[in-house]
Amino acid sequence: MTDDHRSGCPINLSLEVFGDKWSLLIIRDMIFGGKRHFRELLRSQEGISSNILADRLKTLVEMGMLTKSDDPSHKQKAIYSLTEMAIALVPIMAHLGAWGRRYLPVTEELSIRAQLMEEGGPELWERFMDELRVEHLGAAPAVPDRPTVRQTLQAAYEQVMARKAKERELA
Amino acid sequence: MTDDHRSGCPINLSLEVFGDKWSLLIIRDMIFGGKRHFRELLRSQEGISSNILADRLKTLVEMGMLTKSDDPSHKQKAIYSLTEMAIALVPIMAHLGAWGRRYLPVTEELSIRAQLMEEGGPELWERFMDELRVEHLGAAPAVPDRPTVRQTLQAAYEQVMARKAKERELA
DNA sequence: GATACTGCTCTCGATTTAAAAGCAGTTGCA
DNA sequence: TGCAACTGCTTTTAAATCGAGAGCAGTATC
Predict the structure, then answer these.
(1) Sorting pLDDT into bands at 50, 70 and 90, what band is A145?
(2) Which of A35, A98, A169, B24 lies at a C-alpha separation of 20 to 30 Å from B35?
(3) Which pTM was predicted?
(4) In Å, what is the separation between the CA of B51 and the C1' of D13?
């Protein structure tokens, strides 16, 4: 853990934490994909390689973005959890997704989640963050009488995929 | 300009544009520091080296984040301008600053701007973006009867610096 | 006892980073 | 009319980092 930073500017320091091509994608997969294990994270859309994943997980733990613990069901399994610091990135993820959707060549199926996050606004983000606190920090669940935000996003994704498969079939 | 992306996910595509340690800092200096010229941008807090700056500027222009034009006052000067795509990052900058301020070892003088942006909220961000559109895109100025957002932020920064200098003097 | 799965680590070539010096002009001032 | 300072870079060289692929010791499953 080095303490020499390039500057004390908050944007610079943020970039020193996740200013690379992979760290935020790992966080993304944990938040939106519910992934907790090394082998799960290895199967990312973008094909991260194992040494890079191992290195980033180690760094993210050192930075306080993740914690690592043993899986009681399997002596060799490690479980990675988001800290509050990482959960607090949800609004930034939402903004980033909205920005990317507007200016970059996104695909429909991979941006439907971003669209729903954008439409849901800060209220939805807060609900999502609360669910993540339950899942990763052991917080007490609030009102469990409706599908979780992640389930809703995932269902929308699958719906787009199903529709696209059907369209391909008809063509 | 390559068209092969790792995936069509909006967050991934965003990272492909500014997922490195320097690009966002250049945008930051243009937005908050009002810098437009190569030599100005070279004098960043973090000490970017000239070859990296040249490379990033080139890439950012290719990506559509910046435009480059001649300075009529000096045949060798180039002026870099933000596009709407880059101006749209202002809310993300504000969130990033707020997040960094909360979780990372920022210095007071370099985070006062982030604090004011956070306190000002979306309304202030919009005003700032409008000012940037006037400055960089030649939009028509709106109501010019008060100091600009950048001036306000800069004044706050200088006030902190002055106070700190005085404290050092007394110590 | 065979098979698959666990979180990694190792090796090695390719790419990226960075500091420093240099460069062909342009401009302002004496 | 000279000269110093300034312009946006480029070049060079060494070091650090990245990344694909293979491999590994220890589970768990059947």
Answers:
(1) confident
(2) A98
(3) 0.94
(4) 14
Q: How close is the nearest chain A Cα to the Cα of B138, in Å?
A: 21
The string of DSSP letters for A83-120 reads -HHHHTTHHHHHHHHHHHHHHS---HHHHHHHHHHHHH
Of A149, A114, A70, the residue nearest B9 (C-alpha): A114
A17: contact with B, CB 8 A cutoff: yes
Residue B148, classed as helix, strand or coil, is: coil
pLDDT along chain B (171 residues), means of 10: 78 96 97 97 96 97 97 94 98 98 97 98 97 96 86 97 94 79
- Can you give the three-state secondary structure of A119-162, one letter per residue? HHHHHHHHHHHHHHHHHHHCCCCCCCCCCCHHHHHHHHHHHHHH
The CA distance from B38 to A1, in Å, is 34
Residues of A in contact with B6 (CB under 8 A): 45-47
Interchain CB distance below 8 Å, A91 and B96? no
